[in-house]
Amino acid sequence: MTPFDRPPIGMNLARTAKLVAQAFDAALVEAGGTLPVWVTLLSIKSRQLANQRELAGMIGIQGATLTHHLNAMEMQGLLTRRRDPENRRVHQVE
User: Fold this and answer.
1) For 22-62, what is each residue's pLDDT tens digit?
2) Which of 1, 15, 35, 75 is 20 to 30 A from 41 via CA?
3) Domain residue spans in the chain?
4) Would the pTM count as exceeding 0.85?
5) Residue 2 class from Cβ within 10 Å (0-12 exposed, 13-18 middle, 19+ buried)?
């Protein structure tokens, strides 16, 4: 068998990544979570305290999308938000 008889390594890698992502998503759903919730909580845990703008940048989503997720997560008791005492326009997320 020559190297040209096998699928390219990039194709195998892409297929494997897709299978791993599907398995991870299924495990999150089974645990009652979602990928955005998991990424948000992981980012908050790694920083301990972040404002919403910084958090959106770390996660790679728009501020409005993050606000939607944070509202739901706060209602579930997964996190808290408070105004920054030095700048009342900024929300700190813990």
Assistant:
1) 999 999 999 988 888 898 888 888 876 678 888 888 888 89
2) 15
3) 33-94
4) no
5) exposed
